[in-house]
């Protein structure tokens, strides 16, 4: 959408905002630098990077309040579970709303007058129109330009390819538990340093987040980044074969295999989160 705005296909936006969790892959930061230099700056569009902290460091800091990641849990009775997903609210939605308030001239906790709002573009394509939602606060009005244009994911890929941006990476935390095997393999095979980073983090969170442990609220079980609930460097992340996929006759099993390989489709969009989002004053104050 930034490129469409810069080229005049869509109206010129006043700002582009990225919520940085502090733990994106290096390819994402390099891509953002490229967008700023080659697309945003020539069009006079400021790119604002906002943050609420570093999600990796916060998870391992016993003195820091931590909004939980959706970790895969192996309970003491052997049954699988999953922790609540609060990280999207804390590290993506919260800093964006804070910046929007500043742009409007009403930083928290000032009350924003009725009728004062921003139009916020959300990049959801027609493939996922069901994810298009209104904002939960009145000073933000969600707009979905790709849906209005009738663009699918394929249209977006073709457009990016025409701009020389076919290698646009997916934005998500390096150690996101919603990764599929394809994402884990890509990190392992193409970025050894980042693979070592996520393997070490996976081992470090085995007993849950450090703040909870320090407060005596220990996890009754074990936590893992991979949905197989084994250490990441031992997880079965290598590609499922065509024969294995065909052997999955049940529709639910086929869907599960697809998600295991490619990850959760909804990913980590701030405005279309599939998990539990923690509400706070930045979300509730009008």
From TrEMBL:
InterPro entries: Rossmann-like_a/b/a_fold. It comes from the Bacteria. This is Phosphoadenosine phosphosulfate reductase. It comes from Streptomyces zagrosensis.
